[in-house]
Specification:
Blueprint (H helix, E strand, L loop, with lengths): L55 E2 L7 E3 L4 E8 L5 E8 L2 E6 L2 E15 L4 E4 L4 E4 L4 E17 L1
Antiparallel strand pairs: 1-3, 2-5, 3-4, 4-9, 5-9, 6-7, 6-8, 6-9
Length: 155
């Protein structure tokens, strides 16, 4: 984590840090900002450095579990005021689960999985891979190693 972010792996409260906007001469939110400006503040978070215990449980529907005993945790880092965009961290332990996706862009930080898109491709994802899933995609995730990702979802 960079010192400029104000966050590190030992920070228990993970929240976006407001930083100076280019050309503003002031930190976002500290000076004048247009009322109703929905743009999020700029921030940095070290995704691999966040301890597992800092992630919140996000139980799966038992009908989603195909095999194993996968456990899902995560942390929302930012949500648009209208709730239509979400950014955060998501983690799942090994197992096989099904899901119906939202519009999502994510980057795998650690772990490996095979994502089978019904009527579409089979995606092998691992550290450093960026993946796009479309709203309505029906997927089957085979998680080989605990997978952690940073995501942006548009609803």
């Amino acid at each position: 984590m960079t010192a400029a972010s104000g966050l590190d792996a030992n920070t228990p409260d993970i929240a976006p840090v407001r930083t100076a906007e280019p050309g503003s001469g002031t930190a976002a939110g500290a000076g004048s900002s247009s009322a109703g400006d929905p743009a999020p503040a700029s921030f940095v978070v070290n995704i691999p450095g966040i301890a597992d215990e800092d992630l919140e449980p996000d139980p799966l529907d038992p009908f989603q579990i195909v095999s194993g005993e996968p456990v899902v945790t995560g942390k929302v880092l930012w949500e648009a005021p209208d709730g239509r965009q979400i950014r955060g961290i998501w983690q799942i332990t090994p197992g096989v689960v099904t899901d119906t996706e939202a519009n999502e862009l994510f980057v795998v930080v650690s772990g490996r999985a095979t994502i089978e898109v019904e009527g579409g491709p089979v995606l092998e994802v691992g550290p450093g891979d960026a993946c796009v899933l479309r709203e309505g995609d029906r997927t089957r995730w085979t998680v080989h190693e605990t997978l952690r990702k940073a995501y942006h979802i548009s609803l």
